[in-house]
UniProtKB/TrEMBL annotation, chains A, B:
Keywords: DNA-binding, Transcription, Transcription regulation. This is Transcriptional regulator. Residues 12-111 form the HTH hxlR-type domain. PANTHER family: TRANSCRIPTIONAL REGULATOR (PTHR33204:SF29), TRANSCRIPTIONAL REGULATOR, MARR FAMILY (PTHR33204). It comes from the Bacteria. InterPro entries: HTH_HxlR (IPR002577), WH-like_DNA-bd_sf (IPR036388), WH_DNA-bd_sf (IPR036390). It comes from Streptomyces canarius.
DNA sequence: CCGCATCCCCCTGGATACTG
DNA sequence: CAGTATCCAGGGGGATGCGG
């Protein structure tokens, strides 16, 4: 699936974006790397309590196909793979900030937390 | 389900908000009323191509339980029900605007459309 | 006009085990 | 370390039909 999985079925830009974010762990995957914008597979796995390797790998591949995450494989032993937010991914992250503020205020009740 | 269906399981405000928005038609339901902020059931149904009455009613009830939509029933014949965005819902709508812009630029390719 | 009740299908995502 | 390979359960949501 290239960018978007429901071609021509969007009513507005918002649900087009939602289509890319759709997946239990995707916003967290975007969020974890934070300012640094890059993260290894194992680090992601540790910082997403409950995710399985299969699902994490699948969601990462979809985000990669959608052009928001870049996958860089280093030919080393032991293996190392870096996942980096693309320019588009960083901008998506920024676009999610207001939603995060809303969530903190209306769902979490103003609790302290990043974003 | 009151506000949020995954109590205490949120990594950040964003996925807390995502939990409320989670549902195939929810962002569209928020989007359709637009500035006016209010809409009838049948109007929603007509403007959401493909939605069934059962699913539309279900998602509306969840949005109501989450406090972003207010349901006003008028005792008339024929029946009339108005769905209005609450203050919280309007703010959620505003928080979704940047995401909509991003979706237009990165998914729809800068096509003209509201939000 | 505005729904609710039922039935059912598919797809996401979880559990577990194995490989380069 | 960074993944695949299977198997499987749960639930969202679509189709259809009835009720106030």
């Amino acid at each position: 699936m290239p960018v978007g999985r429901r071609p021509g079925a969007y009513l507005c830009g918002t649900d087009a974006a939602m289509d890319i974010i759709d997946g239990k762990w995707k916003v967290s995957i975007l969020w974890v790397p934070g300012e640094r914008g890059t993260c290894r597979f194992g680090e992601l796995r540790r910082r997403l309590p409950g995710v399985t390797e299969k699902v994490l790998a699948a969601q990462l591949r979809e985000l990669e196909a959608d052009g928001v995450v870049h996958r860089e494989e280093y030919d080393e032993v032991p293996p190392r793979v870096e996942y980096t937010l693309t320019r588009s991914g960083l901008q998506l992250n920024e676009a999610l900030e207001p939603l995060g503020s809303w969530g903190r205020r209306h769902v979490l009740g103003g609790a302290p937390a990043p974003r």
